[in-house]
Amino acid sequence: MKEKKKEAAELDEETLFMVTQTFKALSDPTRLRILHLLFQGEHSVNEIAEKLSLLQSTVSHQLRFLKNLRLVKFRREGTTLYYTHDDEHVIDLLRQSIEHASHH
């Protein structure tokens, strides 16, 4: 009996959506700057805004986008939210992209 060569599986809709949304997230300079900062450690919204010279409302908006994609997570301490990265795969992808861009 001959074995049929297995055809490459199509990406399911959910996977396709998540991959395109992840690349969309990484294509925005502000979100990249926020993610890069969070890869270095945990920061509050105010700290992120201050360190990156951004408005707090801008930071909050971008963090919501990143949180919905499970790229960042947060913990609450009193009334302050502290954010950190939530995906080692994306960290690796971003690091590799930065290294690639740095090798002119």
Properties at a glance:
single chain; 104 residues; alpha+beta; Arc Repressor Mutant, subunit A; three-stranded antiparallel β-sheet; 3 strands
How would you describe this protein?
The protein has 104 residues and is of the alpha+beta class. The chain has a single domain, classed as Orthogonal Bundle (Arc Repressor Mutant, subunit A), CATH 1.10.10.10. The chain has 5 helices and 3 strands. It has helices at 13-26, 29-39, 45-52, 56-68, 88-102; strands at 43-44, 72-77, 80-85. The protein is globular, with a radius of gyration of 18 Å. The chain starts with 12 loop residues before the first helix and ends with a helix.
Strand content bin: 5-15%
Q: First CA to last CA: what distance?
A: 53 Å
Largest sheet: 3 strands, antiparallel
What is the strand arrangement across the widest sheet?
Answer: 1-3-2
Number of helices: 5
CATH topology (level 3) name: Arc Repressor Mutant, subunit A
Number of strands: 3
Q: What is the overall shape?
A: globular
Q: Which class do the helix and strand fractions yield?
A: alpha+beta
The count of domains is: 1
Order of helices and strands: HHEHHEEH
Helix content: 55-70%
| Average pLDDT metric | 89
CATH superfamily: Winged helix-like DNA-binding domain superfamily/Winged helix DNA-binding domain
Poorly predicted regions are none
Question: What CATH first level would be assigned?
Answer: Mainly Alpha
The CATH architecture is Orthogonal Bundle
Radius of gyration: 18 Å
